[in-house]
Design goal:
GO molecular function: isomerase activity
Family: Belongs to the PhzF family.
Organism: Flavobacterium pygoscelis
Largest sheet: 18 strands, mixed
Number of domains: 2
Number of strands: 18
CATH architecture of the largest domain: Roll
CATH topology of the largest domain: Diaminopimelate Epimerase, Chain A, domain 1
Order of helices and strands: EEHEEEHEEEEEEHHEEEHEEEE
Protein name: PhzF family phenazine biosynthesis protein
Number of helices: 5
CATH class of the largest domain: Alpha Beta
Distance between the termini: 6 Å
Pfam families: PhzC-PhzF
Length: 285
């Protein structure tokens, strides 16, 4: 059996930047084990599997090389761009993507595709002292204007504010100690750090986690960005319209657009980005 597949770069200003994504069509007959095997074979941060398309509603599943994701931003943005521009004939500007956490509204405006994130949940806060034991950060490197907190809009991340881009650039973590801390402190099965700084009104970030016993860094993380946008709306400003820069330190520069507001305890969280087409082909299952 063969199924069509595409490769795109998401949150990318040009091809070979941003975050890579493999998208597989006609995946409804694949087993969970097969999807995971294929995701491991591509070895991208995530791969998506489209299991149904009806009108302008698509059901997709998202896999890393280690496990299935309940929600992830760059796979939804990239898959939606393909659906609207390469797969669904005469598609409008709006589609709905069904993922395990529920229904995600997606809209294309010129060359940007935007998704509407779910309402955030703010989980535990943590002591800055913890981070001195498994990073090279000093207490002066951490930005005390913000808490260190686990936040989720479908996938949870521990958000860690640092004072400047230099601290972000020079960041080093001890994998074993970091992994132990994440396992002991995170409230969900998805365990990852999102280090960020707000310097001169510019947001820069790095996502690091442990997968398959390896420390990995993601080029562009839409789910973490939706958590960060909610976090900044809560603790920094009630309206936001800016860009989050990620991937610069691993030679995959990415731009994740933020557009959101907070009013009456309701969060309007939108993240957007450009998608660049790379390749298409047939996959032998």
């Amino acid at each position: 059996m063969t199924i069509p597949f595409y490769i795109v770069d998401v949150f990318a200003e040009e091809k070979y930047k941003g975050n890579q994504l493999a998208v597989f069509l006609n995946a409804e007959s694949l087993t969970d084990a097969q999807m995971l095997q294929i995701a491991r074979e591509t070895n991208f941060a995530e791969s998506t599997f489209i299991t149904a398309i009806k009108d302008e509603i698509a059901t997709i599943r998202i896999f890393t090389p280690q496990h299935e994701m309940q929600f992830a931003g760059h796979p939804i943005i990239g898959t939606s761009w393909l659906l609207m521009n390469k797969i669904i004939d005469n598609c409008g500007q709006d589609i709905t993507v069904l993922v395990p956490v529920g229904s995600i509204s997606v809209r294309q405006e010129e060359d940007l595709v935007w998704l509407q994130a779910a309402q955030p949940e703010f989980l535990a806060t943590f002591s800055a002292t913890d981070f001195l034991s498994f990073t090279n950060l000093s207490s002066a490197d951490l930005d005390t204007e913000f808490p260190i907190q686990e936040v989720t809009t479908g996938s949870a991340f521990v958000l860690v504010p640092v004072r400047n881009i230099q601290a972000l650039k020079n960041l080093v973590l001890n994998q074993d100690k970091m992994d132990k801390w994440l396992r002991e402190n995170c409230q969900t099965d998805h365990r990852a750090f999102y280090f960020f700084c707000v310097e001169d009104n510019k947001i820069s970030s790095r996502m690091l986690c442990v997968e398959n016993n390896r420390l990995i860094e993601d080029a562009a993380t839409g789910s973490a960005s939706s958590c960060l946008q909610a976090f900044l709306l809560k603790y920094h400003q009630s309206e936001i319209n800016t860009i989050n820069y990620q991937g610069d330190f691993i030679n995959r520069p990415s731009q994740i657009h933020f557009k959101g507001s907070l009013a009456d305890n309701q969060y309007d969280i939108k993240i957007g980005g450009k998608t660049k087409f790379v390749a298409k082909g047939k996959w032998e299952v």
